[in-house]
Amino acid sequence: MNRSSLPISVNTMKKWYESEDKVLQCTLPFQRHSGMWSAIIKSNLIWSILSDSYIPPIVLLKDKRGVDGKGKDIFGYQVLEGQQRLITTLFPFLNDEWALHSAVEPVEYEGFTYDIAGKKYSELEEELQDIIKNYRFTVQAIENYSMEEAEKLYFNINSGVALSPMQKGKARLGNELIEFLNTLLNGNFFTQAINITESQALKEDDLLMLMQGMALLDQRHENREFKNISAATMLCYAESIRGTYNDNKKEMLLEVVDFLDRAFTSKNKFLRKNNTPIAFVMAKTALEQGIEPEAFRAFINDFANSLYPAYEEASGSGNVKILNVNMRLRVMFLAMCEYFKIAPESIQKPFAEDIPLYMESFSENIEVNEEVSSSDEPEVAETENADTTADMDVLDDSDNSASGEVVDSSPGEDSYADESTEG
User: 66: exposed, middle or buried (C-beta count within 10 Å: 0-12, 13-18, 19+)?
Assistant: First the structure.
């Protein structure tokens, strides 16, 4: 096995990959699935290129394919290391197929600061476009190798890659479901609209918020019970839906996220970690009522600028407890009914049915319910901005703790079918 350096730009490798004779390919059977990087990780690669930060080498397998008319050797290349950087990220970005995440930081170049958040390649300044397409990775070409040697090299390169707790938890979902969820996370709502910090994005809190919304929809439609919606509980939930999340539910999620993508095209101050799962569930209700995306956005903005003491009270310490989550759902549900002149009683399966429909009852009710729930097993209070890493560590145990328990009610196959038939 021989190794050599290959002086080649991103743009040239892209042309090789898209050429008819496929000079560059990515078809090795032991490669991980492409498309596994989140929007923020892809965006940070672009930021690293523009900031001249360190980026690990690309490794290609080099094979002789034949000779040309002049007797010169013709070579082909296989991507051994760099699939996510080239195939999933850079080539599609150069084709304007995705936009940078709203949380990506500005870049400094020749004394100027450029705001690149939310932009596609064609929307960047020309000098920044040139940096990206002409960027030269450190490229190592491997020749005269056996497939066994290539496979061993691949696993040696990747054996030390550190993953965030949420990335480790993706294994609980399985490849098919996580690839489906990734398509939802790459839309406007999760990459541009939610108010998420770069640190939260790197921990993949966007996936956490999506799964919290999914769990709350399961609570509404299938009567699933959760003690809380913490990160630990959501990873247990992920394991419980692996291989069972049916096509009806996937279609429903597509409709909800498409609705939100159309409703929110830029960052919204209200869509923080605490509020996004609540707005997600309300979007499903808005779809059921025939509310247009623009009107739903107007409602969310009105709600954000209004005073709802019970909502604020349920957003403080312990905001992931299901009691507080349901209180926020209830307040926003009633506010939406009032905003759109809808009778709450007319909507099937209203939220938190044990909570009175009247706004003035909220503060009193939450105090009563807190006293009732005090007899439960103690739970660690978690606030909106708390680091969820500690919760993740619970999953290393063989049994589920109180903070990670999911009570499964064995959802039916057609649980998300025609809502109008349900009583």
Answer: exposed
Query: What pTM does this model have?
Result: 0.66
Pairing of strands 107-109, 73-81: unpaired
pLDDT score for 169: 63
User: Residue 321: what are its φ and ψ, rounded to 5°?
Assistant: -65, 140
Instruction: Give the Cα-Cα-Cα angle 138, 141, 147 (nearest 5 degrees).
Output: 135
- What pLDDT score was predicted for residue 32? 60
**Separation CA 35–CA 87 (nearest Å):** 9
Tell me the C-alpha distance between 221 and 216, whole Å: 9
Going from the C-alpha of 147 to that of each of 38, 80, 143, 152, 164, the distances in angstroms are: 30, 11, 11, 9, 31
Residue pair 414/251 in contact by the 8 Å Cβ criterion: no
Separation between Cα atoms, residue 73 and residue 407, nearest integer Å: 63
pLDDT digits (tens, 9 = 90+) for 222-259: 999 999 999 889 888 988 998 899 999 999 999 999 99
Strands (E), 195-285: 225-226
Q: Is the pLDDT of residue 176 over 90?
A: no
Measured distance CA(419)–CA(293) in Å, rounded: 20
Report DSSP state, residue 398: S
% of the chain surpassing 70 pLDDT = 78
